[in-house]
């Protein structure tokens, strides 16, 4: 099989993703969040209540990995973890108003910076890139 004229996807995307993560870190810190904490709040925004195990699966983390992040978010008043009345072994996780405000502030600031980073691209290319990125994210979640 002949070698391709293009680099592998990871080789192309990694420098860009690394730049995005570096851009996000101070924004998240300014809002009292870690990247994992932000991922949790973003996920809770789409579904108001999840079990800890289901939440970990949704963000692609081991359920034991996110316990410290859940503890920190709960201590900061950004989430609640209540016993499920149907199964006392299960904790239901819900975002609070404070968590929504922190998530929304962080997301707005991150997306402003993303627009700045993508600004050199023609508008049609930006729209296409964002549409394809969303399609790839959806494919990844469904596999």
What does this protein look like?
This protein is an alpha+beta fold. It has one domain: Orthogonal Bundle (Arc Repressor Mutant, subunit A). It is built from six helices and three strands, in the order ααβααββαα. It has helices spanning about 10-30, 35-45, 50-60, 65-75, 95-120, 125-140; strands at about 50, 80-85, 85-95. The protein has a three-stranded antiparallel beta sheet. Helix 1 crosses helix 5 (about 95-120), helix 2 crosses helix 3 and helix 2 (about 35-45) packs across helix 5. The radius of gyration is 18 Å and the shape is globular. The two termini are about 25 Å apart. The model has no long low-confidence stretch (mean pLDDT about 90).
CA-based gyration radius: 18 Å
Helix content: 55-70%
SS field, number of helical segments: 6
Spans of at least 5 consecutive residues with low confidence: none
The CATH superfamily is known as Winged helix-like DNA-binding domain superfamily/Winged helix DNA-binding domain
Strand order of the largest sheet: 1-3-2
The protein's oligomeric status is: single chain
> Hey, roughly how much beta strand do the residues contain?
5-15%
Distance between the termini: 27 Å
Could you say which overall geometry the principal axes of the C-alpha atoms support?
Answer: globular
CATH class: Mainly Alpha
- Mean pLDDT equals 91
Protein name: DNA-binding MarR family transcriptional regulator
Keywords: DNA-binding, Transcription, Transcription regulation
GO molecular function: DNA binding; DNA-binding transcription factor activity
């Amino acid at each position: 099989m002949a070698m391709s004229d293009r680099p592998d996807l990871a080789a192309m995307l990694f420098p860009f993703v690394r730049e995005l993560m570096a851009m996000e870190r101070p924004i998240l810190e300014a809002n009292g969040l870690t990247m994992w904490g932000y991922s949790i709040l973003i996920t809770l925004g789409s579904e108001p209540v999840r079990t800890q195990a289901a939440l970990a699966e949704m963000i692609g983390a081991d359920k034991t990995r996110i316990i410290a992040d859940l503890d920190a978010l709960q201590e900061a008043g950004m989430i609640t973890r209540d016993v499920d009345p149907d199964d006392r072994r299960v904790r239901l996780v819900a975002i609070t108003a404070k968590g929504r405000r922190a998530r929304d502030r962080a997301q707005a600031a991150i997306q402003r910076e993303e627009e700045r980073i993508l600004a050199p691209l023609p508008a049609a290319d930006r729209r296409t890139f964002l549409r394809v990125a969303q399609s790839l994210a959806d494919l990844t979640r469904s596999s």
